[in-house]
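Retro notes
What went well: the complex prediction finally ran end to end.
Inputs used:
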Amino acid sequence: MSGSTRAMTALIRARDRAAIARAVSMAERGDAEVRQLLEMLAGDPRRAYRIGITGPPGSGKSTLTMQLIRQLRGAKQSLGVIAVDPSSPFSGGALLGDRVRMSDVAADEDVFIRSMAARGALGGLAPAIADAADIFDAAGFDCVLIESVGVGQNELDIARATDTVLVVLTPESGDDVQVTKAGIMEIADIFVLNKDDRPGGDVIHAALGEMIDLQRQSRLVDSWAIPIVRTVAQEGSGVETLCAAIFEHRAFQERTHALAARRSRRTLERVKRLVQSRLEHELWSEERLHRLERELASEAASQQSAHGIAEQLFADFWQRRGPESS
Amino acid sequence: MSGSTRAMTALIRARDRAAIARAVSMAERGDAEVRQLLEMLAGDPRRAYRIGITGPPGSGKSTLTMQLIRQLRGAKQSLGVIAVDPSSPFSGGALLGDRVRMSDVAADEDVFIRSMAARGALGGLAPAIADAADIFDAAGFDCVLIESVGVGQNELDIARATDTVLVVLTPESGDDVQVTKAGIMEIADIFVLNKDDRPGGDVIHAALGEMIDLQRQSRLVDSWAIPIVRTVAQEGSGVETLCAAIFEHRAFQERTHALAARRSRRTLERVKRLVQSRLEHELWSEERLHRLERELASEAASQQSAHGIAEQLFADFWQRRGPESS
């Protein structure tokens, strides 16, 4: 096992596509072997810059991602791409009449595209995304793009996993901006106003600008000024400007040491999540869950508060002080 | 301590307003004493029917709640009310020009209204709401109303805490329905189409009806048919019908034993959350968090994967097998 894992690290470092694909699949399934693999790869220098692309369904994230890939390839960046969007053409969804062709990039040796299915569990994909990004990192890609539809928890997951977050909106998303104001402002490093050939762009541009100004007033003087980049991804217009904005944000974060802080906060949160899920796994063994269900169904339970039952369960777990099998 | 707690249980059972207020404040702060209190009250018969009222900001939830209070009082129901909405008039927000007067109900001995502030922590209010509802229950109220603005996690919290969930929409919320479709369908037992004197009501009514039909096709034959009740809360119109729908949903759930199942699922989830938060509390002591931060900042950390660091932390916690102080 350890021998084949070692062989795999060598293949990943050599950017062997089959090995990368296998490792990402392991990460997606949450295999224990992926831990060993990442531990062995941990000493490698980490170079990949991680870019998140999120926004409501229908905002054109996939087309934009495809254009970004082209633009970044033009800038000689090698790329690992993770698409979490279930409707993404990367994951089999069709973009009818799309002028941007998937096949353009699929043949490129310096681009590795991988779709991931959002699993049932809340925040279930976050660990797998982080692991996959680490694998791309070890393979020596310059950038990792993570595209995910911005619904609920997903949005935050993307923000936590990346160095620059693009929030993609369209002239039609006026109402959404109102509703999700707080959440969006928290995670956006760059706003992309896509499908800007449609009417209504100026209105939402003005609304976003106002939000950004308000936000800035409550921040430090030298904070990042969130730009709004207007694009028509289908035509490719604005994508060059968007790329420049990404590089600018990277340079800004490097200059102000915000990047190092962001990355160590990221690792802290990730470690916390990993420890917690290990604990939860130990705690909610099938046996213990069944016992709890039986207890709650019993007469005695009706005489006890939820706190009392929880306290007993906790004490029981605590006193065993080890896995149930020991 | 235990003596005064015992005295408090007697006062709560006698529906002493000061004692109830004190107990709910304890629940809000997460005081340890509240656990003791609820344990002592746990043997009491639980009669209160719990009704959740949620929906987007501006849908008129507070006015509707006020009207529901009146209507339920007319049906001789005593009421405990929890308002989690930060803009709610119950929590100090003003309803200018509102025809429904807070003072109407404030003087009523059989109504106890309490606002609660949503705390910072994710899902931070859920345990406090559950505790407060238990306190109202012990005080012998017939119904507990929980009003909360439907944003993100809040919505689910309300659904988990109650027996009937009202989702309040307005003719203006057409786009929201599209966006939050799945989430709304999951939690709504009754749709309230409020502000129905405004244009656009028929459109959203039709859209909701379609969603409900689709949903029903994928469910059991004898599942609950989600009604859509059209109201103008400001005028009080439709509120009687809404009340009837709530009682009907209650009767349906009692007839099909769905209520008992819903409540025991609720207790199960609550116990799980309580045990988990106890564990997290033990795990993330300030000392351990600081140690982790120091570790991550060190040279050695850059040679380790997040998994490796998490594994060490977990093993350390596991081997101590008890609180750090022991």
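What we learned: Residues 127 and 273 of chain A are 8 Å apart (CA to CA).
What to try next: split runs per interface for comparison.
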